[in-house]
Amino acid sequence: MCLLLLKKGAEAYLHKEIWYSKHIIRKQRIKKDYRVSELDWTLRVDRTVREANLLRNAKIAGVPTPTVYEIDKRETTLVMEFIEGQRIKEILDELNAEARETLSRQIGTLIGRLHKNNMIHGDLTTSNMILTETGKIYLIDFGLGYNSASIEDKAVDLHLMKRALESTHYRVTEEVFSKILVGYQEEVGSSPMKEIYDRMESIRKRGRYLRVSQKGELTHVISGNQQYR
Amino acid sequence: MLCIGLEGTAHTLGIGVIDSNGKIYANVRSEYVPKSGGIHPREAAQHHTNVFASTLRETLKNSNLSKRDIGLIAFSRGPGLGPCLRVTATAARTIALLLDIPLVGVNHCIAHIELGRQISGFKDPLAVYVSGGNTIVSAYEADKYRIFGETLDIALGNMLDTFAREANISHPGGPKIEKIAKNSSRRFIWLPYSVKGMDLSFSGLLTAAVNRLKENESLEDLCFSLQEISFAMLTEVTERALAHTEKSEVLLTGGVAANKRLQDMIRIVSNEHDANFFAVSPDLAGDNGVMIAWTGLVQFLQGDVLSITNSQVLPKWSLGAAEFTRT
User: Fold this and answer.
1) Buried b vs exposed e over B23-40: b needs ≥16 C-beta within 10 Å?
2) A10-39: per-residue pLDDT in tens?
3) What is the structure's pLDDT at A3?
4) Is the CB of B305 inside 8 Å of chain A's CB atoms?
5) Which positions in chain A touch B277 (Cβ < 8 Å)?
6) What CATH code is carried by the domain that includes residue B297?
7) Does the distance separating the beta carbons of B142 and A203 come in below 8 Å?
8) pLDDT in tens, A78-115
9) B153 and B276 together in one domain
10) CATH number of the domain that A57 lies in?
11) How close B97 gets to chain A, by Cα (Å)?
12) Residue A102 to chain B, least CA–CA distance (Å)
């Protein structure tokens, strides 16, 4: 059996293996010595099971995800399909503007599709998106995901997407995010979109996310009643 | 060159003096302790006003300097409570005019990290800055400290202090909780664990903990569990930022950095990722004037000076918005 440690992530080891003649990823959530054992065990089991469920439900909803072949609760391990492709993180900055626009819109569509089906990814970053040769985008790593119909949760999810762009793709953040919103709106419809978008803006305004330049100008658009001295 | 720094973003008025080699001449702090409840901005500002002159005198006395030796003044321009910031800024402007020395405005969060970097000797750390007002995991990239993770609602220190108040634990809440937790039977009580992507949320955890307290749950076990859960949340985000940025240094600073259990947890993940770990000592990790003086000096040497007329305070000047050229 071919066994290759693909990635030693923060919470799991990813092994690439051949499993019944299929290319698979064995994702094992590992024990963390910094946290007490009760907390550690529960978090690992919960996330393993939740991830398996969300991967399956997302696929049913039309969001490409790896197929889950096996769940091992005792080992807090998932066996799932290996997706051949490139991480969006690696290619987003390098693409030409047109290709980046198309890709961003597609990403928006997928997020919109999850949200329309009341699924929250919980960790939307470009590291968790894989572009295959056929141009399909797969979403992976649902370990922090959950089911929710709440506007707040969807808005936080989108907000985190923007935050991830700001820290990793700061040169193209605005351009990419605006296209993500276009694809997102097409999927969820304009009325839910408005509600979610407004909430996202209000999350950004909860004190910590205002962008004020050194000259004292507000660079982030805020509504009129925000006090600024 | 000697720089005097004024810190006054929240409960602490701090005045410190440092020179361009990083030698600290004085670090004097006066903390406003509310009679009840949390910080009242106006009362905190009044406190800073009342103690300013004596704190300044003590600073000069401790440093064995005369005011003529000071070549530069820096002040905390934001983020923070408006009334407190304005008191400090007014004092800074007055001193700048009286002594005829240049004025520099400093971002409070950058100051915490930059002084920590100076003391630790770290070149390019992942910074974990956690206090009563901020909970931020950040790293420097292209002219800014980029925020990887932060709280979506209240700061970790604020959460601990508020819980302490609800439990009638006297000031300072955080250190008392740490002490009480040590007497716990280590019985783990489940409270909401809330990591959202790289961000954190502590308000639900606080509410749940307070509710359990009202149900007469053991205070020791609650303090223990509250620390375990909130610190594990922060450590998880730190570890993920570490895996993502692949930094080889981790700097822990801010008032909550004094907590030994938190230090242990962050040290463990640092070791796992082969990164060096440093926790800033409490007198320089909590709010202080030295960090403002040091960062002001760095900025001044790059030609960053404020005119009095453009020196208005910036209460919402977040770390992610502040441009800063690191040396």
Assistant:
1) ebbbbbbbbbeeeeeebb
2) 789 999 999 999 999 999 999 999 999 999
3) 57
4) no
5) none
6) 3.30.420.40
7) no
8) 999 999 999 999 999 999 999 999 999 999 999 999 99
9) yes
10) 3.30.200.20
11) 21
12) 25
